[in-house]
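Morning. Coffee machine broken again, so started the prediction first thing and wrote up yesterday's gels while waiting. Chain of 298 residues, entered below exactly as on the submission form.
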Amino acid sequence: MSRASLVFPVAILLALAFSSESRASACSPAKPSTFSYKTVSGVDRNLTSLDLYMPSKSCRKGKKPPVVVWVHGGGYQTGDKSNGAMLVKAALFNSQGWALVSINYRLTDISKPNPWRWPTHYEDAAAAIAWVKKNIASKGGDAAKIALLGHSAGADIVSNLATQPTYLAKYRMSPKDLRCQGPLDTEGFDKGSSSDSDKPMWTNALGNAPDYQRTTSATLIARRGVGTPKAVVALRGTKSRIAIGNAYVAKLAEIGVSGNVAINAGPLTHAEVNTRIGQQGDSVMTPPLISFLKTCLR
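Came back before lunch.
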């Protein structure tokens, strides 16, 4: 574990998990509301849409719900905003009195002559966050309290938006508009050090960016003065993968970002880091994630 991370007692974590489960069904909507966050000519509207899960009024605790924005994974080539046990996540976050927004973005189809590549994925995600910032108040949410989470390729998108201000700047926003970030289980923090199995994914989706192994690696581009928010990361897999995650946490501390959390997700597979969030009895991902989010959304 990085010295910049926090560790929570197991008994407290389990209590948090079960208390969340007990309120989930009463707090969650039957289905989400879907909105288009931007329109691109010739592009399926679903690819530039988001799903909004609002907690029931009884679970809002008399306050405007903070917002958790989720970015799905899939190697930049597959995936959808409904994937990854999203209803379970909605139940979990709604039980805390928080809204959940799950976003889609254009995917890289390398079989096409001109596939969507960098910076499309990052800019789509930034546009979705801008939609939330502008519109969530009219839906009953709190635009001043936004947490940005993602898994796998989604985690890479999250860390880039949190450390490179140019993507949000296009929509007159900055990383300061995010209360916190949660890039969960990615080697994208340092693409040059990532495993050989991951490198084709980065090349296919981001290889058109100048020096993409550096300019899309959050650990290498993070710097003081841009408002990068504190982070929760999940550490698992090979020693190299864990080292890459720890190095990101250490870099955040180096540039003055405090309160970062590293979750020991060693018992889980890459997919389980995502699907275990909110599952009944989960003691690895859910409790520390909820504890972290409470510190930034309170």
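Residues 196 and 202 are 10 Å apart (CA to CA). Going to sketch it on the whiteboard this afternoon.
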